Amino acid sequence: MSHIDALLRAMTLSEKLGQLNLVTADQAITGPSVGGTTTDDICAGRVGGVFNLWGLDALRRAQRCAVEESRLGVPLLFGLDILHGFRTIFPIPLAEAGAFDPDLWERTARAAALEAAGEGIHLTFAPMLDIARDPRWGRIAEGPGEDPLVGEKFAHAKVKGFQGDDVSRFYPLAATAKHFCAGGAATAGRDYAAVDVSERALHEVYLPPFRAAVAAGCATIMTAFNNVNGAPMTAQSRLLNGYLRGRLNFDGVIMSDYAAVAELVEHGVAADQTEAAAIALNAGVDMDMVSGVYLAHMPEALARGLVDPRAIDAAVARVLRLKERLGLFDDPYRVVRLDDDVKDTHRALARDAGRRSATLLVNRGILPFAADIRRIAVIGPLADAGAEMLGPWFAAGAAENCVTIFEGLRRALPNCEIAHHSGVAIEGDDESGVVPAVALAEGADAVVLCLGESAGMSGEAACRAALGLPGEQRRLAERVMSAGAPTIALLSSGRPLTVPWLFERAQAVVATWFLGDRAGEAIADILTGRFNPCARLAVSWPRAVGQIPIFYAAGSTGRPFDAANSYTSRYLDCSNEPQFPFGHGLSFARTTLSNLRADGRELTTSRSTRISVDVQNESDVATEETIFLFARDRDARVARPLMELKDWRKVVLAPQQPATVEFALSAAAFAFPGEDMEPVVEPGDVDIFVGLSADAATLLSARLRIVSA
Length: 709
Ligand code: BGC
Fold this sequence. Notes:
Bound molecules: beta-D-glucopyranose
Strand order of the largest sheet: 11-16-15-14-12-13
Radius of gyration: 26 Å
Oligomer: single chain
Largest sheet: 6 strands, mixed
Low-confidence stretches: none
Structural class: alpha/beta
Helix content: 25-40%
Strand content: 15-25%
Number of helices: 21
Mean pLDDT: 96
């Protein structure tokens, strides 16, 4: 008999339910307070895992209760939200997605996992894989942006980074793919709101990143809070038992989100907590996060005949297997040993990740700074704001470790006179600082205007209906720009902001998102030209909130926009085009593409066709470019999106260097869910588009044909 079977046999019902009980220790508040746990519960075997607790001593004390005092000595699982760093904080995921660099995505996950496992954590509630096309939704900051292929590659890289390659054990951390699924499509971009998406959108857009996470061996999956197409995800057997367990053969742990089992009553699908417990377990949810409903009400559900005891055993076995694969039965006090220089290595990685994630949106020749620049005014409420640079979900990160933008510039340019005035606060209506800020701008060779949101304005429960600059920042910016010095605006935010007036007037704008600990160094590297920016937008940047949801992979219409015909798809008062398309991002180089060609005109499923394009760096600076391959299937029974990302390549070019970039494309890349949602490839014409962003006007194109073979 296996160790796990033996344990299961020995367990009382209460001990079994204890293994399914995931409780918060409230060291970080990540949801409404529902009451913490007590050591008594742990000692009594009524707790399977604890999250929001860190610090080796605290973890050891809790583990000792479980291992030495509970009857069967089953170790606790320690979880935490490690989204973009544990102590060293890396850029928020939406920004890092824009690096389009799976190797970087994996390395930052690995670094975060090592730091956390070095302090006794076992499980991260990451990666967050919600495809999001609505920047009103604050949680867009936590995920990979709008595109399912980016989501898939991001999922794969992050799971590998957190867990390593060996699926039989999770090292250094176990990962959680969340939030399954479609929470990014919450109605009107409001957190926790219901989602109504077609079956096709589920299979084409929202499920693929989770499929990729499962294929990469992801240990656990967390359900979304939302009601999706009529059923709360915590109760959605069709997608949990059906899709995850049945179709993908996922055999890891499925957990609810924070108190979501109890919330089934508020959703109106469970009459009481006993029903809630039964519905969630029967839907496939193994662990109950925070609500304590399984522990308190499952016995009654059993007595009422609402659940099968074998379903409880199966869930407990999955939790125990997770603990086994983490090595907790061998060493419950497991702490991963770290190299002595790990902090320095991670700091350097955070700086590099930061500069690879900052997107140069506009540059009217002002960046990089000229060598003779002497006086710089650093103005705005985000200029010297360490805590804000961490962004949402900063785990054990600390403001005092952050290099602010002001500090980063001072370190990078010791011979310049650099002065700072915040002018206004991020929010609020106090304008008394505007006049001194403008006075500072007046005498400067350049103004670095640091605008944006606070870290707390994105992430969970941080949705916005208006996406302009909060408070009096616009007034400050306009007054400062009127002072006449060339102005570089930096936008710190967890989402695109609709500030068309700023894009028109500033000499340069950089989306600096929330870049983490090393934000100031990374930004200074770009402004001074020490690093040539290479990030691209992982999300379309709207001009106006009314355009949302906006994404490049739009569905077809029989009346595409035609300026000469008003009965075509358009607004009366706004362009259809985003402010910046998906994939947009400037560098200091000038790169051109030409001569798109394919080895043959036919695409088959049995072998791939080579697609090539010539790339030329026409400037005197080295550059790293991202070349995107999009496609449209022009002839399918299901109307396909106008463009879908099929692949991308990165290429590093020396000054004036030419290169040829190649893609291997097969008909399999054109598989789409057929009527039964199983993948099909249909013969017919396809267009391929290659370019530096999804801007249709700049893409090279070629027509190929899918043939059956
Ligand atoms: C969030 C999850 C998070 C959990 C635990 C919830 O409120 O939705 O993303 O993992 O709290 O902190």
